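During the no-cost extension, the postdoctoral fellow (Dr. R.K.) reprocessed legacy sequence entries with the updated structure-token encoder. One reprocessed record is reproduced below for audit purposes.
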Amino acid sequence: MRKFIFILIFFFSSCKFYKLKHTNIELIIQDAGSYRYDFKKEIYTVFSIDKSPIEIKFELSNEEKKGINEKYYELHLNKLPAKVSIEGDCMISPAFFTTLYIKRDSSMQEIQIESGCRDYNLFNRGKAERINNFLKYIYKIVKVKPEIKNSPKSNIHYM
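Re-encoded structure tokens follow.
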């Protein structure tokens, strides 16, 4: 009986810890100098050389928000340092970077990864794959939304 009670206490304390550890994230993704996705405000911004930025409202369902949040923790991106910058081993010039700004609780995280390159050194390959998988997951959700899919394209290509 004592073992059973101990196991129950351990199980419920683990569940509480899990919930505390996996708090909701606030996320902004900056695609080079061309596009920005603000998931808290649900605003997609298109930047252009010759025009003012265009802000487009989009909506995420609770299920989509939950999925993004869970994917972040599932890929252990919360374990990465507060500031991460990953350059690829491609010789593409100019290099374009995608930056993720993530706020959870009282901490901020800035993750920058070279986009357009899928060749990373051995030290960064695992981190890069996790970050790229997270971005793919998010883009599958947002890029099919009509308001984003039908939005104007950026004419910024070398920032």
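Helices lie at 2-21, 62-74, 122-142, 146-149. Residues 16-20 have pLDDT under 50 and may be disordered. The remaining legacy entries will be reprocessed before the final report is submitted.
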